[in-house]
Amino acid sequence: MYVIVAGGGKIGANVTRSLLRLGHEVTLIEQRRDRFERLEDEFEHQVQRGDATELYVLERAGIARPPDVVLALTGDDEDNMIIGQLAREKYGVPKVIGRVNDPRNQAHFDLLGISPTICTTSSVMALVEHEVPEHDLIRLLDLRRENLAIVEVQIDGASPSVGRSVETLALPEGARLISVMRGGHAEIAVGSTVLEAGDQVLAILEPGKEDELRRILLRR
Amino acid sequence: MLKGLVIGCGRVGSSIALQLHQEGWDVTVLDENEDALSRLGERWPGTFIVGHGMDVDVLRGAGIEDADAVVVATDGDNTNIVIGQVAQKRFDVRCVVVRVLDPARAKFYAERGLDIICPTRVSIDRLLDAARACAIPAAAKAENG
Which residue does chain B place closest to A103, by CA atoms? Predict the structure, then answer.
């Protein structure tokens, strides 16, 4: 496949290298001269110098073909959003992936239809929450397009849901249990599944239903 | 009283803010640099807020939710385009005007319904007109000569 990578920092350069190794055709765009010269030593004609938010730079890189994927990986969120919008809406690129540098800008990416996105800060925080659970409800995955999220809930001895079957829990509208992890084994949660202390429950829900789910499973 | 929010207090933003204020608007100016306040003169009677226009809490604090008009004129084209779309799509501001220097991006986003002023485009057109006007006496001279 053909991929345009915007931004030749650590992420963009490594992604380019990996894609080339997999046999894909790649054009990397980097604006800074010092970086570009270093990248040119390695990638030769596969790196071009320029501002990837400029139409003529994108066109020189072959955006009108269009590529199968555009990766907007610069260190500037506004630039990544504009690259994503131009790629999708002006040139009909079927797939755009955007890097979110500041997680507070995630909502802007969503608003402008740049999806999927990758945010290092959010990924690290999700890992921290997963590895060092301080919170009783951990957000594992945001399904932005579906407007759903998958969360993990830790059931302890004090939880009112212990000893009750899933069908008797008055789960809120817009929230369902997916599975129960117990003693290292996961089972799909069905109506007759009875919750026990120590269970790790996966649930899928609409954003905003977290508190209701927490109250029913944990009464907190 | 009409409420105006000006984002970016450089030469352009500050002049717009001062003029709108003079015309009786209630004007709030937002800039990430505190020093930009000096562009508004010694005694700016409107509101001045230090913060970034990409920050929705800052925008709310600056009263974007009940602004009649938002003028986006920071020194970054892409920043302006993003803030303009946030004002239009997220906060439903009816009148959003955005400055974009690059004619190519200006054209694309103007076609998508953003109200864009491109000073570069305006200069190109005016300079072209001026150059063409020079051709008229030259042509007349050629005809007479």
Answer: B55
Domain that holds residue B47: 3-119
A71 to chain B, any CB pair closer than 8 A? The answer is: no
Query: Chain A partners of B78 at a C-beta cutoff of 8 Å?
Result: 53, 76, 78-79, 81-82
* Angstrom distance (rounded) from CA A101 to CA A30: 17
Q: What are phi and psi of A80, to 5 degrees?
A: -65, -40
**What distance in Å separates residue B36's CA from the closest CA in chain A?**
22
State how far residue B109 is from chain A, nearest Cα, in angstroms. 9
> In terms of Cα–Cα distance, which of A81, A70, A184 is closest to B79?
A81
Which residue among B55, B56, B104 sits closest to A55, beta carbon to beta carbon?
B104
CATH of the domain at B69: 3.40.50.720
pLDDT for B54-105, tens place per residue?
Answer: 999 999 999 999 999 999 999 999 999 999 999 999 999 999 999 999 999 9
What is the ipTM for the molecules in this complex? 0.89
All structural domains of chain A: 2-122 (3.40.50.720), 133-218 (3.30.70.1450)
Place of tokens 């239809």: A113
Alpha-carbon gap, residue B80 to B99, rounded angstroms: 7
Cβ separation of A112 and B102 shorter than 8 Å? Answer: no
